[in-house]
Specification:
Length: about 240
């Protein structure tokens, strides 16, 4: 068995249904897929980004996105229960959180320390189709297949959310990806403004800290912040 990040192990353990928990655990520990006699495994989920471009595009991004999404989806589930007085199947929500992007790392190739590209597999089949196919092959229940298949929503996926659990996962995923992605682009813009250069890589935590520094202390404060962290080059900088 491949060791799994302890934070993910804890989330898996919250699935009450034993059979579903085992299936989720099995796929998380071995996210490989066989097509035409070839087995595809990509990069490890611990090291993988959650997206190559828009959000969590750095090592560890996949796990960070999954943990944040878990918190968000548990809050949404609580709202549905406490405010709208409606039952939520938390097992299905957790299954969606853990598996909705499970074949993204399988479709990535690492080309530099923090650089990735889509693999030959990704050029032929998208990660969501792979996930739907493999969940069905592994005998996941229909509603568990649905939370994953509907995670991109009506506009960007094969089907929109038709259950409360699928809607929670889809909305959570959209909000969490946007929270991270918007911070990364804002921080990248701010670094460009101060240094005149494109930052090579930026983590979610760094992006939030940079936007915080600019919000609280203005452009001069941001310049100090970047300089203290050795992120200012010798290029002439013009602070607005
Ligand atoms: Fe996705
Ligand atoms: Fe996602």
């Amino acid at each position: 068995m491949i060791p799994l990040d302890s934070r993910l192990v804890r989330i898996v353990s919250r699935i009450k249904d034993r059979s579903l928990r085992r299936k989720v655990d099995g796929l998380l520990r071995n996210p490989t897929i066989k097509i035409g006699g070839r087995s595809f495994s990509g990069i490890s989920i611990e090291k993988s980004p959650a997206s190559i471009r828009h959000h969590h595009n750095y090592p560890g991004g996949f796990v960070e996105h999954t943990i944040a999404l878990y918190e968000l989806c548990m809050s949404l589930s609580r709202i549905v229960r406490r405010i709208y007085k409606c039952k939520v199947n938390t097992d299905l929500v957790i299954c969606g959180v853990l598996l909705h992007d499970i074949f993204k790392p399988t479709t990535y190739e690492q080309i530099g320390e923090r650089e990735y590209r889509r693999s030959t597999l990704a050029e032929r089949v998208d990660h969501l189709t792979l996930a739907s196919a493999e969940l069905i092959r592994r005998g996941f229940p229909l509603d568990a297949v649905h939370v994953v298949t509907a995670s991109h929503g009506q506009q960007y996926g094969p089907i929109g959310p038709m259950t409360i659990e699928a809607l929670i996962c889809h909305l959570g995923d959209y909000a969490e990806a946007k929270l991270n992605g918007d911070m990364l682009s804002a921080a990248r813009f701010m670094i460009r403004e101060v240094t005149g250069e494109e930052p090579l890589t930026l983590s979610g935590k760094e992006a939030f800290a940079i936007v915080r520094a600019k919000t609280d202390r203005g452009w001069d404060g941001l310049k100090d912040y970047l300089s203290n962290r050795g992120m200012l080059t010798n290029r002439k900088v013009q602070v607005r």
